[in-house]
Amino acid sequence: MSVKTFVVSQGTLLSALSLLEDVPRSVLWDGFESYSLSPVQGKPSLLARLVSSLKHIGGGYGSFSLLGIFNKPVVNRSWGLLQEYGHQDLAYGPNFNYEEVLVSSSSLIAMFVSLISVAMAYMLLYLPPVRWILRRLANSDSVNPDYAGSITNSLTATNVTWASSAEHCAPVRTTFKTKNCDIAYLGASVMISECALSLVLTLHERTLGHVLTDRLRRSEYFDIRTEVVQDDIN
C-alpha cells in the first residue's frame, strides 16, 4: 500500500487516543493476535516485518504498517468464517497467510519507516505524556487540515494472491486506486456506503465480492484493475 499526502482527521485521531487510554493493554495485545477474531486458528505468522521484498508487485520494499496490525485480524476472521461455515469452493485453505506493508523505494527507507513506526507505537502505548501532547495538538485548529487542502490525498493498494499448493499457477495482482477524491473523507464515505448497500442488496453470498468491486468502479472514485502476473516471483 502506498499513500500520498494522507491526513488524519481530528475525530479519527481523538478516537485513536481514546482507544489507547480506555482499553486495557492486555485486551489490546489480545486483539492484535492474528486470529483473535477468527472462529478457528490458522497457520502461525509474523505480526509484521520490518522490511519485505516486493518484486512480485513490480519492485520496491515493504515497511511495517500500523494499519496492518488492525486489518490482519479482520481479514483472518473472513478466512476463519469461510473455513468453518462457508462452502468448500469459497474457503481459502489451511495455508492462507495475509501480510500488509507500506511501499518504500529502498530497503534503507523501509527499515527507517518501520523503526520510526514501531517507536511511535510504543510511545503512544506506554508514555502518557506523548498522548497528552498529541491530544493538545489535535484540539488545536492550527494543525487540523481543512477539506479543500486534503482533496489531493490518494491511496494505492496492491494485492497479490497466489496458491501455495499450485506449482504452475501464476499469481494474480489487483491494484486499487482512488481518483477524483481524497481517501480520508469522501473516499472513505463512499466505500462505507457501497459496502452497506452491497450487503443490503445482495442476496447471494458468492457474488458479494464482485458486487462490491463493480459498485466501487461505477462510483467513479476508484480504479480497480486485476491482472495475471507473468514475472517469476520465486
Q: In a few lines, what is going on in this structure?
A:
This protein is of the alpha+beta class and 234 residues long. Helices cover 44% and strands 15% of the residues.
Structure notes:
About 15% of the residues are buried. The strands form 2 sheets. Strands 1-5-6-7 form a 4-stranded antiparallel sheet, covered by helices on one side. A 3-stranded antiparallel sheet has the order 2-3-4, covered by helices on one side. The protein is an alpha+beta fold and about 230 residues long. It has 7 helices and 7 strands, in the order βααββαβααββααβ. The longest helix has 20 residues, at about 65-85. The mean pLDDT is about 80. It is globular and about 55 Å long. α1 (about 10-20) runs antiparallel to α5 (about 130-140) and α6 (about 185-200) packs across α7. The chain has helices at about 10-20, 25-30, 65-85, 105-125, 130-140, 185-200, 210-220; strands at about 1-5, 50-55, 60-65, 100-105, 155-160, 170-180, 220-230. It is about 45% helix and about 15% strand.
Keywords:
about 230 residues, alpha+beta, four-stranded antiparallel β-sheet, about 45% helix, globular
SS content category: alpha+beta
Number of strands: 7
Tertiary shape: globular
Q: Beta-strand level of the residues, as a percent range? A: 15-25%
How confident overall, as mean pLDDT? 81
Main sheet makeup: 4 strands, antiparallel
Give start-end ranges of low-pLDDT stretches. Answer: none
Distance between the termini: 21 Å
Strand arrangement, major sheet: 1-5-6-7
- The residue fraction in helices comes out at 40-55%
Radius of gyration: 19 Å
Succession of helices and strands:
EHHEEHEHHEEHHE
| Helical run tally | 7
